[in-house]
């Protein structure tokens, strides 16, 4: 296996533009200016949205909904694609590669610690439909939920679903295609549907 030097990974992580083919110098200046104007416009449209320093957003692929609550995003994050809904609190250096749904629906919140990776196609929503009763439609039964907390330095794999009310400890890894229905301890590696701990990071 080819080892990628850490310095190179860090550089690519920090600069959203580096994920594209490098642009010639004058075009890079114009592109930077356009990005800044789009960011200002975004913040004007969403007074409850806060975005930290050096956070890169792939405009067009990331959508924000703040009508149910605020969204706070820390410094040096990378938001590649997804639907982000308030109430959502994201720490520093968090990468969101893709989220079908990431965030709350008013009453409940989602909190993500520093340095966590969210892989493509994840579904992290702190509320869900009640469905146990036959005598009423699912629509009539309404919603239930609980805050979701994801620690620092976690890796949430591709296609993962996290149930409402779940806490994922610092440093935990959730394998691809897992459905997390119970709390996951710190530094655990959990896989499957429902997710089970198969080991711990050393
Ligand atoms: C969870 C993960 C990190 C485990 O990696 P690992 O520590 O190298 O584990 P292994 O590959 O040695 O697998 C250990 C066991 O777990 C099983 N396993 C691993 N990942 C699994 C998964 N996602 N779902 C179900 N079982 C899984 C393996 O089949 C193996 O089972 P066995 O012992 O019965 O043979 C990795 O499999 C994974 O899912 N990574 C996420 C990839 C991803 O989403 N990438 C997106 C890019 S950001």
User: For this structure, what is the CATH class?
Assistant: Mainly Beta
CATH superfamily: Hexapeptide repeat proteins
Which percent band covers the strand fraction? 25-35%
Shape estimate: globular
Give the helix proportion (percent range).
Answer: 10-25%
Task: Work out the radius of gyration.
Answer: 18 Å
- What strand line-up does the widest sheet have? 2-5-8-11-16-19-21-22
N-to-C terminal Cα separation, in Å?
21 Å
Per the CATH scheme, the topology name is UDP N-Acetylglucosamine Acyltransferase, domain 1
Poorly predicted runs? none
Oligomeric state of shown chains: single chain
Topology readout:
Blueprint: H1 6-14, H2 25-45, E1 49-51, E2 56-57, E3 62-65, E4 71-73, E5 78-79, E6 82-85, E7 88-90, E8 95-96, E9 99-103, E10 110-112, E11 117-118, E12 122-124, E13 127-129, H3 138-141, E14 143-145, E15 148-150, E16 155-156, E17 161-162, E18 167-168, E19 173-174, E20 179-180, E21 188-191, E22 196-200
Parallel strand pairs: 1-4, 2-5, 3-6, 4-7, 5-8, 6-9, 7-10, 8-11, 9-12, 10-15, 11-16, 12-17, 15-18, 16-19, 17-20, 19-21
Antiparallel strand pairs: 13-14, 21-22
The structure holds coenzyme A (COA).
Structure description:
There is one protein chain. With 202 residues, this protein is an alpha/beta fold. The chain has one domain (49-197): UDP N-Acetylglucosamine Acyltransferase, domain 1. Helices cover 17% and strands 32% of the residues. The protein contains 3 helices and 22 strands. The strands form 4 sheets. It has an 8-stranded mixed beta sheet, with no helix packed on it. Strands 1-4-7-10-15-18 form a 6-stranded parallel beta sheet, with no helix packed on it. A hairpin with a 4-residue loop joins β21 and β22. The chain starts with 5 loop residues before the first helix and ends with a strand. The mean pLDDT is 90. Coenzyme A binds at residues 97, 117, 119, 157-158, 173, 175-177, 189, 191-192, 198.
